[in-house]
């Protein structure tokens, strides 16, 4: 069972992102503050949950959280500052939107730069250890999946409703056949013709 918080002395928000390894689309970041007694048996690292479980949990988290926020950093910004900095920027922006303001951030991963002057800890695989980070991972993932389904309606040839922008074989073949869309990350696709397909 997940612990609710990394620490209990300060008002804590869990932070996570979704979409770092994608060829296309924004990276999404979320910050979530949970009540001390929050518990749901399905809550886990979003990557260990089914899409149906994540979609079921999303409205529960959004309704029961003390505060939550989701930010998206578009592909052009990712190309400008790189995916790590874009993920960090997104988590900071989400955390700054929370009301009440968190006094501590529990961040999934091993790298972070606090832009809001809030103390933090990086926790490797934190979304499988702490409920507030897991909740942030669910919100980031479900909001991003919803966004990729909208983009799929605009560019159905890439299969984004299914692959969500990740570099599946079919997605890479589609890039080779159709070229890059305005939503592809150029720094992830230096030359579509040279994409390794196998």
- Largest beta sheet: strand ordering: 3-2-1-4-5
Shape: globular
Q: Could you report the average pLDDT, rounded to the nearest whole number? A: 93
Tally of discrete structural domains: 1
CATH architecture: 2-Layer Sandwich
Structural summary, described in words:
With 198 residues, the protein is α/β, with parallel strands linked by helices. The chain has a single domain (12-194), classed as Nucleotidyltransferase, domain 5 (2-Layer Sandwich). The chain has helices at residues 51-64, 75-81, 83-96, 131-154, 160-163, 169-178; strands spanning 12-18, 27-33, 67-73, 104-108, 120-123. A 5-stranded mixed β-sheet has the order 3-2-1-4-5, sandwiched between helices. Helix 1 packs across helix 4 and helix 2 (75-81) packs across helix 3. It is globular and about 55 Å long.
Please give a quick description of this structure.
This protein is an alpha/beta fold. It has helices at residues 51-64, 75-81, 83-96, 131-154, 160-163, 169-178; strands at 12-18, 27-33, 67-73, 104-108, 120-123. The protein is globular, with a radius of gyration of 17 Å.
Topology record:
Blueprint: E1 12-18, E2 27-33, H1 51-64, E3 67-73, H2 75-81, H3 83-96, E4 104-108, E5 120-123, H4 131-154, H5 160-163, H6 169-178
Parallel strand pairs: 1-4, 4-5
Antiparallel strand pairs: 1-2, 2-3
Helix pairs in contact: 1-4, 2-3
Question: Key features?
Answer:
198 residues; alpha/beta; Nucleotidyltransferase, domain 5; five-stranded mixed β-sheet; 37% helix; 15% strand; disordered C terminus
């Amino acid at each position: 069972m997940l612990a609710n918080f990394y620490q209990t002395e300060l008002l804590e928000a869990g932070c996570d992102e979704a979409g770092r390894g994608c060829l296309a689309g924004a990276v999404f970041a979320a910050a979530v503050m949970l009540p001390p007694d929050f518990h749901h048996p399905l809550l886990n690292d979003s990557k260990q949950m089914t899409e149906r479980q994540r979609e079921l949990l999303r409205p529960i988290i959004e309704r029961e959280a003390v505060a939550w926020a989701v930010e998206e950093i578009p592909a052009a910004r990712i190309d400008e500052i790189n995916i790590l900095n874009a993920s960090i920027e997104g988590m900071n922006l989400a955390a700054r939107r929370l009301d009440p303001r968190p006094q501590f951030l529990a961040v999934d991963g091993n790298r972070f730069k606090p832009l809001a002057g809030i103390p933090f800890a990086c926790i490797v695989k934190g979304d499988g250890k702490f409920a507030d980070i897991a909740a942030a991972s669910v919100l980031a993932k479900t909001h991003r999946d919803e966004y990729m389904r909208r983009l799929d309606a605009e560019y159905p040839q890439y299969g984004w409703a299914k692959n969500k922008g990740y570099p599946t074989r079919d997605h890479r073949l589609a890039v080779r056949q159709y070229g890059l869309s305005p939503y592809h990350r150029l720094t992830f696709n230096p030359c579509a013709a040279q994409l390794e397909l196998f």
